[in-house]
Write a structure and sequence with these properties.
Among the domains are: 140 residues, FAD/NAD(P)-binding domain (3-Layer(bba) Sandwich), CATH 3.50.50; 101 residues. Helix 1 runs parallel beside helix 10, helix 1 packs parallel to helix 15 and helix 5 packs across helix 9. It is built from 15 helices and 19 strands. It is an alpha/beta fold. 35% of the residues lie in helices and 25% in strands. Strand 15 and strand 16 form a beta hairpin. The radius of gyration is 22 Å and the shape is globular. The strands form four sheets. Strands 1, 2, 10, 11, 12, 13 and 19 form a seven-stranded mixed beta sheet that branches. A seven-stranded mixed beta sheet has the order 8-7-15-16-17-14-18. It has a three-stranded antiparallel beta sheet with strand order 5-9-6. Bound molecules: flavin-adenine dinucleotide. The site of flavin-adenine dinucleotide has 38 residues, from helix 1, helix 11, strand 14, strand 18 and helix 15.
Length: 444
Amino acid sequence: MEKFDVIIVGSGLAGLTTALELSEDGKTVAVLEKHKVIGGRTSSWDEDGMIVESGFHRHIGYYEELPKILKKVGVEVDDIVQWEEQIDVRIKGSKNKASFGISPVFGPIDTIKGIIGNNDILSPKDKFSLIAFFTNGFLEIVKNPEKLDKYNVREFAEKYEVSENALHYVVIPLSAGIFFLPPERYSAKVFFGLFLPGIPRFYKLRIGAYLGGMTEVLAKPLAKHIVKNNGIIKTDINVKGLILDEDMVKGVKLEDGSEIFAKHVVVATNLGGAKEILRGHFLNHPSFENLFALPTMPAVTIQMEFEKPILPVDRTTFGPLTSLASFAEQSRSTFTHVPGRLSVILTPPEKFLDMNHDEILKHVQKDGRELGLDLESGLMNYRVVSHPEDFHSLEPGNDHLRPDQKTPIEGLVLAGDYTRQPYFATMEGAVRSGLYAAKIVLEE
Ligand SMILES: Cc1cc2nc3c(=O)[nH]c(=O)nc-3n(C[C@H](O)[C@H](O)[C@H](O)COP(=O)(O)OP(=O)(O)OC[C@H]3O[C@@H](n4cnc5c(N)ncnc54)[C@H](O)[C@@H]3O)c2cc1C
């Protein structure tokens, strides 16, 4: 009979962080992962001959805990990312784009140019209309975050009379680009809350593209250390439920009917996965009411390989008013083995979830044309990568439903970006949830 101190279900950043912390403390840990590759939403793999990833990611310079756990396993963020100090917004119906500097310290000139420039798309009046929106958003998120969760971003923008242009070229790109949702579906609490940690650490602000697939640059170095600490990581293992003995968790049941025992089980899956595992045991348990009530939200990406680069630089780009919420050329940063590579996150995600992949491609090529991009010539390969139930919904009114890592069930702890931590659905949030989960296990 296999027995561990702790079983961790899920090998995303939350699960790997939990496993790393506990194995460093001398606990025997087993990480069980449903998929063939580790990393969860930060993974990369070979999909029928094309290297794909869960979706293109940006490391934000103000993250604190993710860099710390990477450092613990010998990885410096500066060695695995290519920093960007600017983002581009492409204008529908023209070949023009606006560039915004996002890094007051690392790229001060670009930041100032972004604010005082871009006058062909944003008049001084448009820019001025954003001041009240951002100032009041940041004041409210500090003073009364719950009130802010009642508004969607569009309502909040209307309240502060953001001009139509500023809405189109700043608010929509930010909301659709960051969490794939149009502003009318995006909670103002999440929108401002995500920027909040950046304010005291504004000097750290910039974003980085990973220099390699995320399983390689993030997950594998963490996994290597867990194994070095005598931890076990098994892939292709689908956990179906828990082993319960008089309300105490004793281990997990696998899809093949076998059982693995442990003193603690940390369910570090995506929200959809957690609901599946816990449903059979706690659907009507009052302490899990919020978790089951918290809706999931999908994400859909299309990743394309070309005979030559589509964009002159590898830089995060937004395509407001089209399905291309955000996209980036990656052939000089993340995937240098191909001459051209574009990764696109689509909005609104639900529209594309069940769409035939050829149809998605045609849709994206048509919208690409509207943004002045030729996504037909030289296309060599493409794949659609979807995440039907990975995210918790970031729509207004849901944030209070996110559960704590600690549960009232002895031996059961939760982790994952949907659990309560201040960084919402981000890599930093996942890592923080893993740190909290490990602390709970160590204290019990
Ligand atoms: C397209 C896209 C773009 C993103 N962009 C960014 C970005 O730019 N910056 C940023 O900070 N964040 C970004 N994120 C969010 C970030 O990836 C997530 O917040 C974070 O990776 C979540 O980690 P996690 O460990 O909580 O969950 P996951 O990474 O989802 O890990 C959960 C794991 O549990 C496994 N699992 C589920 N059920 C079972 C089961 N029954 N048995 C065994 N294993 C199971 C899953 O297979 C998965 O590996 C993006 C995500 C996506 C999808």
